[in-house]
Amino acid sequence: MTSTPAEIRAAFLLWMGALAAGCLEVALHDVEPSGLAMRLTIYAIVVAVALRMRAGRNWARLALAIGLGVFGTLSLVIEPITWLLEGHALPDLDLTGVLTATSRTLHVLCVWIAVPLMFTPRANAYFRRRRGERGRDRSHAVAAASTD
């Protein structure tokens, strides 16, 4: 069994930090029950995918990098950029706005640090080894089943 490199453990914790920041933002705003249910479902899926990434599943690493690293980041920054383009300024923020901006900033920072950590040389080697181990495990299982 291959041990999980520090970069992958750190990336996993950063994904959990991004989720915590998202939960904080939800708590700061009145969210309709259907919207809350959708967010909680997405958060549960992210936890499941992050756990698979930590276990060495390359598909999960790619899903996090593309799904959240690209599209998730866009969803977090479009609203504040639009707000600023409408002529607002940071001094216009009330306490909830400041806390939301802080939460989003932490969220984006967690994502932007987690994504490159998942693609360091040690992380890449980990995902290759895990793929090889799964292939050997399947080969042994097929061989054992054919001898029964």
From TrEMBL:
Keywords: Membrane, Transmembrane, Transmembrane helix. The chain crosses the membrane at residues 12-28, 34-51, 63-85, 105-127. The keyword Transmembrane helix applies. This is Uncharacterized protein. It comes from Actinoplanes aureus.
